[in-house]
Amino acid sequence: MGSMFRSEEVALVQLFLPTAAAYTCVSRLGELGLVEFRDLNASVSAFQRRFVVDVRRCEELEKTFTFLQEEVRRAGLVLPPPEGRLPAPPPRDLLRIQEETERLAQELRDVRGNQQALRAQLHQLQLHAAVLRQGHEPQLAAAHTDGASERTPLLQAPGGPHQDLRVKASQPRG
């Protein structure tokens, strides 16, 4: 046991694992939380490594889970913390988990897009309703003040409604 000013004793070990057992062993060691990994292949580029596809899959899953967690928080819900440590899923379940979370995330994106479209439509409809209300208010006010009706023509001939109006046609300039 280390003191207050010193770290605990550690041991440097090197493990050689068969490929078939590597995932299970590494996930169990990771669940313990007592292991630090060193990269013994630092000279190999990231694209030439054996497990690049798996690491990218995990990064995509992390992004998806972060998005889902943010949406849950935005909805005002609180996720209870998991009880104890969660075991790493077996590789055969990892693909199913990835597909399911991506499906849920896409559904949430669609719902959010629909919600935004509906809010925009509601806003437009409220604007149209306000314009219609304002358009009818002056006519109602005029009907109450001077007794004019909606059927009264806006333009009447000076001599009355039955007077003939004559229009003088002008000659085209040529």
From TrEMBL:
It comes from the Eukaryota. This is V-type proton ATPase subunit a. Its main location: membrane. It holds the Pfam family V_ATPase_I. One of its GO terms (cellular component) is plasma membrane. It is found in: Membrane. GO terms for molecular function: ATPase binding; proton-transporting ATPase activity, rotational mechanism. Residues 139-174 are annotated as: Disordered. Transmembrane segments: none annotated. InterPro entries: V-ATPase_116kDa_su (IPR002490). The keyword Transcription regulation does not apply. It is a multi-pass membrane protein.
